[in-house]
Amino acid sequence: MILKNLAIGVMLGTALLLLGLGTSRLPAILAAACAQLLASLLSPAFGFALFPFGILFLLTQPIGDDSDDAKETPGARYLIVARGGPLAGRSFLLTEQNSPLSIGRAPADIRFPESAVTITHGTHCSIYVENGTAYLVDNMSTNGTFLLPSRQRLTLGSPSALTDGSAFFLSRPEIAFEIRKL
Fold it and tell me: What is the per-residue pLDDT for 4?
């Protein structure tokens, strides 16, 4: 029985060690302390087996500022969600690294099927991220790009800032997209 408890303690301690690496220090310490307390309540041998791994875990944690501000943060991330039209229900990730994304027929990044040829221009519009803000630009389309709910037509070639929850449509209101900040 003691060997079984010892084996379980070793496995649990190792799992905590592996799960805690790369996380911020406070949640990892709390997780290790809770596991140690639970293990001790279940069985003294179990808790004793886990103790060295908890100490090893705490010793391997980096020293210094591990706040979110000190970590390198990736650029802003947005999700473009098709609310209607031929792409309804599909979503597309937009980041500073993969922007701009063009929307339209081939050769666009977000492509409509060939059946939508009369609806959209080849690269109807583009969305890009700059300094954490998403912008929408009409790429000289014939039928226009419009912001919702105002139905304001974008000036051709002029960027318009988008915020979390902003919506727009291409040519017709049923070809609508929404942008969500992640």
Answer: 60
Instruction: Provide φ and ψ at 111, rounded to 5°.
Output: -100, 140
Strand-pair category, 110-111 with 101-104: parallel
Question: Is pTM, for the whole model, over 0.90?
Answer: no
Predicted pLDDT of residue 67: 40
Q: Are 80 and 127 in contact (CB under 8 A)?
A: yes
pLDDT value for 25: 47
- The residue-averaged pLDDT of 81-93 equals 90
DSSP 49-76: HHHHHHHHHHHTSPPS--SGGGS-----
Candidates 1.10.3470.10, 3.40.50.300, 2.60.200.20, 3.30.360.20; correct CATH number of 77-181?
2.60.200.20
Q: How do the domains of the chain map onto residue ranges? A: 2-63, 77-181
Q: Is the pLDDT at 11 greater than 60, yes or no?
A: no
Asked whether 144 and 171 are in contact (CB, 8 A), the reply is yes
How long a stretch of residues is the chain? Answer: 182
CA distance 141 to 156: 8
Alpha helices in the chain, H assignment, sequence order? 2-20, 25-42, 44-59
Is residue 126 predicted with pLDDT exceeding 90? yes
133-138 and 101-104 strand pairing: unpaired
Alpha carbon 9 to its chain centroid, in Å, reads 35
